[in-house]
Write a structure and sequence with these properties.
2 domains, about 400 residues, Dehydroquinate synthase-like, alpha domain
Length: about 400
């Protein structure tokens, strides 16, 4: 059920196929949180609110708590998600969930709290530690999850994935399963109006990477292609505006919708080599996920240009940097150029500029390449990748 709150600009010019997996209920718009409360109230009697320390003390969480009180839903706040989630944070959340006798989870914040809410809900019923499920499909009857993003980028509110760092082995685990798809997604762009520039850039470029990778994925479908093109058009037009002026309501709204569209895309078509190579950088060098994607994006797109040329050309024409009169090769190059320009506008640093030590990076390349291939994501790319190929791309990107 897709419900639109007031003033929403989204127009869905397509028919969803029955196998397009999305949350049962999605509320979109400036009044989405209020309109979603009856559905949230049906998820359980006591919620664990999963968030970070900054959002946990914000007016957003205060508003949510007041609405929960008005609907007679008890709640306890867990604000222990400090940065990208780790197995240690998830275990702490599970303990509080059980001690407080909660029966469902609400994630509010960026992608990390949303991913954490899914992981915590799963581990309240799954045996062992979360690291035991790396590479496995999680399939258990877990508590309901409500996802309320306050940033526009990760799309976690509409995906069956969660990314958690295994602190013992130093890897970012991509955990998946249809049961991880949130039951209720609340996409209220007003909650992201105060996101700082660096967060706006990181999350927006993450959404762009989602949309582009899902489009060229071997798992792409006609439905995800339509959503991916729509998301790219929104992002290329509105991310520079949101980055320059975070108070621009239209840009924030369009970015929130684009992030949701791109999230639906990766939930159904997955990602490719960019994400596969990005996660190890985040795990070892603590680079924000969206920024590590952006650091690799142009290099990887150039490497896949020949195989993805037709779809890159499609995107070039969709965003207006090429016309039907331009050949695919020229149009494809223009799209990659537009991506580079957007990364420049958003002040994305290189790996070196970020401060990563070259010797340490070089010493880690073999492990990162192995972990990237093991994640399975490069296997969705339109060309075949080996660990050696990833090593070469890491060196080129640095």
């Amino acid at each position: 059920m897709l419900k639109f709150a007031k003033n929403i600009l989204l127009t869905m010019k397509m028919t969803f196929s029955e196998d397009l997996r999305v949350p049962q209920q999605i509320y979109v718009g400036s009044d989405a949180l209020k309109e979603a409360m009856p559905a949230i109230g049906k998820c359980g009697k006591k919620a664990l609110l999963v968030t970070g320390p900054h959002v946990g003390h914000s007016a957003m969480v205060q508003q949510l708590c007041e609405l929960l009180d008005a609907h007679k839903v008890e709640h306890v706040v867990f604000d222990g998600i400090t940065g990208e989630p780790t197995d240690v944070m998830i275990a702490a959340g599970v303990r509080l969930y059980r001690d407080a006798a909660c029966d469902f989870c609400i994630g509010i914040g960026g992608g990390s709290p949303l991913d954490s809410a899914k992981a915590i809900a799963a581990m309240t019923v799954c045996e062992g530690s979360i690291a035991d499920y790396n590479g496995c499909v999680i399939d258990c009857k877990m508590p309901k999850v409500v996802a309320i993003p306050t940033t526009a980028g990760t799309g976690s509110e509409v995906t069956k994935f969660t990314i958690v760092t295994d602190t013992v082995h130093g890897i970012k685990m991509l955990l998946k399963g249809d049961v991880l798809l949130p039951d209720v997604a609340v996409v209220d762009y007003t909650l992201g109006m105060t996101a700082p520039k660096r967060v706006t850039a990181a999350t927006g470029l993450d959404a762009l990477t989602h949309a582009v990778e899902s489009l060229i994925s071997v798992k792409a479908t006609a439905a995800t292609d339509a959503l991916a093109v729509s998301a790219v058009k929104r992002i290329m037009k509105h991310l520079p505006v949101a980055y320059a002026d975070g108070a621009d309501a239209e840009a924030r709204e369009q970015m929130a919708v684009a992030a949701m569209e791109a999230g639906v895309c990766i939930n159904n078509s997955s990602v490719t080599v960019v994400h596969g190579m990005s996660r190890p950088i985040g795990a070892l060098f603590h680079v924000p996920h969206g920024i590590s994607n952006a650091m690799l994006l142009a290099t990887c797109l150039e490497d896949m240009e020949e195989e993805a040329r037709v779809k890159f050309a499609l995107l070039a024409r969709a965003i207006g940097v090429a016309t039907a009169a331009d050949g695919d090769a020229d149009a494809s190059a223009r799209f990659i150029g537009a991506v580079k320009e957007l990364c420049s506008v958003c002040e994305v640093p290189t790996l070196r500029e970020y401060g990563i030590d070259e010797a340490q990076f070089s010493a880690s390349i073999e492990k990162m390449a192995t972990d990237a291939i093991a994640s399975g994501s490069p296997g969705n790319a339109p060309k075949t990748y080996t660990a050696e190929d990833c090593v070469a791309l890491y060196r080129r990107a640095f």
